[in-house]
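Protocol step 4 of 6: record predicted structures for both targets in the notebook before any analysis. Target 1:
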Amino acid sequence: MTMDPDDRLNIDEALALQLYGMPVAEIRETDCHQFDVMMFFYDGLQEHVDVAIDILERQEEIGIVSLSCQHDFFPRRLLEIGDDCPPVIHCKGNLELLNAEKTVAIIGARAADKEGYDKAYELGRRYAEEGYVVVSGLALGCDKAAHEGCLSVGSKTIAIVGNGLDICHPKAYSTIMGCCSPSGISASRQIQHALWPATAYRLRCLMPSSWLNAP
């Protein structure tokens, strides 16, 4: 069932429900009228709203835009991964790329040898020249190479970052991360200042791989 745009949750409401622990499937189906009722019956929800507003205001100051899973710009491909879909993503850059028709995900080993690194770079460059938006994880090794290959021909790339967007790890990649944002986009499921938990490696790879639709 398609929700009327006027009935959708505000971003602070969606983030508050995420912080409260509501599953993404329930957040997707909750409208603003139901949220108003929840405010009376869900103990502590107001405190989560206050925290969400504070987070969003601080992120907005440094150019981070947050999208809920109900927003038109939220990546359709992420919605297809079901319960692993983040209820809210945080972005910096060209939001329209999130639903680009021609995308390819290039993900590989962090400890890649020169052959693997060169191959990822070449794939990033070649697909970019064919008009694809290259998606990768801005990690060591093949991910970095894929972004660099794409950027080498002046094309657009989506960097799926593990940490909050105010943190660049490794710090040496800050230049690449900056290059991704003006015409491309950086995106994360983590809020500002948040570090990616080492135990969640599968989810770390799942976001960029959801854009894998090139031949």
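Target 2:
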Amino acid sequence: MNYGLDSGKFFIEYKSSVRPRGNMREESERYARELADQKGKYILGLSGGMDSQSVLHSFCTQGIPIETVFFYSPGYNDNEFEQVKILDKKYGVKTQILDIDPNSVREEIDALSVELDLPSKNSIRHSIFLSRLPDDYDFIVATYDPLIFVSPTDKLYYCIGYNYPEISRNRAYGRLQRKGKNIPYGVSAEFLLSILDDEILRSVFIARKYFDGNGLMGPMQNLKTTDRWDVYIKPIMYGKYWGDELIYFPKSGGAEKINFVHAGTNYRYMLRDRAVAIPFEEFISFLKTQGGVVKRFYQNTTTEGYDKNNIIQQVSNYKKDVESQIETLSREVERLNQEIKRIENKK
């Protein structure tokens, strides 16, 4: 996967398949073997979530040695920290714990966000984490979180852009000039097809109107684009291809709890800024074209309506939400204090 800017316009290149694709698990295990054959010095970023666990599983169940590291932000991803301990016992590994308080590097993150034109402060946070790993290790990170957008005219598009997580994180990593490579796990045509062309993903999008605008999620609230994959597709695919071999930890958030990382980030703007939207079936057809053909796709989206004033408004709304939450929590604390006094005074 090659990407860049051509006269300020984002482009990305994909190579079509060279063989029939397997299912998601088969492709994951195949890639672990391919990396092992290259005899690199690898370390896997183990987050405690399903994606990195499936990568670890692909190495360990095939007898391929792999080192692991966990990016610990105390007070923010404690649940994941406990999950990593469980995975260590399951797979017989000893994960290195790299502890970084996000508030201690806040000024550095803010400055780099401006310097690198990277609105994703979480990507910069991860690059600081990577800078503290041994320089000669190839760093493996699970990246398969496809974003499929449903247009107002009910058309499906595969989307990728300059500020999308897999691209922005790689951009942030690039500033380090490490000896070791950054290895995104799962970007080959065959791996992409094992996800995008799977019957589970296709079935969810066929039935998408069942989820959108339903009363269970709130009055006429549409399902978030990212949630289609993360909540309704991914766990079912893992269940189908890995069965009970994985540990299905409840979904939880870590970085999402770091206010300064996410406050003021206009995600709708980021998803449209210098992005490519490829008609879904056209993209699938290209990836299936065997022969390793390389094709370049150029940005074709617009950020109209997501200007500076829009971002300021979003930050202001976030501020109001926080103030409202503080007020609610203060009332709850007072209520609990009164309840404690009532119980203490009860004979």
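Step 5 preliminary note on target 2. Residues 2-306 form one domain. The longest strand covers residues 9-15.
Proceed to step 6 after PI sign-off.
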